[in-house]
Amino acid sequence: MDIWSIDRLTLFLFFVIPGFVSLKAYSLNFPGRIVKSSEQLIEAVTYSCINYALLSPLVYLGFRNKFWLDRPIFSILFLLVILFGGPLLLVVGLAAFRRARWVQRWLPHPTEYAWDFVFGQKTPWWIIASLDDGTKIGGLYGLKSFAASGVEKGGLYLEQAWVLNSDGGFDRERESTGGYLISADAIKTLEFFNCNL
């Protein structure tokens, strides 16, 4: 059996590409665990099947009327919708569904880690980080700050470094600094304070 024959390759691409598009779009919405390639292939085929099931009326009409056979532009648009548009819309719908509060009463939240949940909201915070060695540092997590996501958390960048007073509050911004870069491994706890930017 020649797996690289045009028929088998076309079948493979049509049942893998839409699924991989969905998987990658989903991982951008909900970063989390790293999945093995063998598991991804099974998930990709599953997502592709769901995609084709949802787009079956469009596929049926397209093949029944054969409007795209003599029109290359329609053929390209038809394939783009099937291979990319449908999978992306599937993920947008699934993400909105999984984030709905009434759904979360029965299903777990799709974001796997609290770290990703908090920083994924893109909310500015004043943060006090307690480190493993007992040190406390404070700073601003704002629009120019960054928190690594997923399992391999690289850490946290606070765009402004602040001096903490004796009561543990924010006293003043440290001068001539570019902020704090804190390793995730060194953080024991993070305390968040409302920030109106």
Question: What does this molecule look like?
Answer:
InterPro entries: DUF6338. Keywords: Membrane, Transmembrane, Transmembrane helix. The protein has 197 residues and is of the alpha+beta class. It folds into two domains: 99 residues, no CATH class; 81 residues, Roll (SH3 type barrels). It is built from six helices and eight strands; from the N terminus they run H-H-H-H-H-H-E-E-E-E-E-E-E-E. Strands 6-5-2-1-8 form a five-stranded antiparallel beta sheet, with no helix packed on it. A three-stranded antiparallel beta sheet has the order 3-4-7, with no helix packed on it. The longest helix is centred in the middle third of the chain and has 28 residues. The protein is elongated.
Secondary structure topology:
Elements: H1 6-29, H2 37-54, H3 56-65, H4 72-99, H5 101-104, H6 114-119, E1 125-131, E2 136-141, E3 146-147, E4 156-158, E5 160-164, E6 170-173, E7 180-182, E8 187-194
Antiparallel strand pairs: 1-2, 1-8, 2-5, 3-4, 4-7, 5-6
- What is the straight-line distance between the termini? 63 Å
Q: What is the SS-derived class?
A: alpha+beta
Strand content: 15-25%
The H-and-E topology, N to C, reads as HHHHHHEEEEEEEE
Question: Brief description of this entry?
Answer:
The chain crosses the membrane at residues 12-29, 41-61, 73-97. This protein has 197 residues and is α+β, with helices and mostly antiparallel strands. It folds into 2 domains: 6-104, no CATH class; 114-194, SH3 type barrels (Roll), CATH 2.30.30.
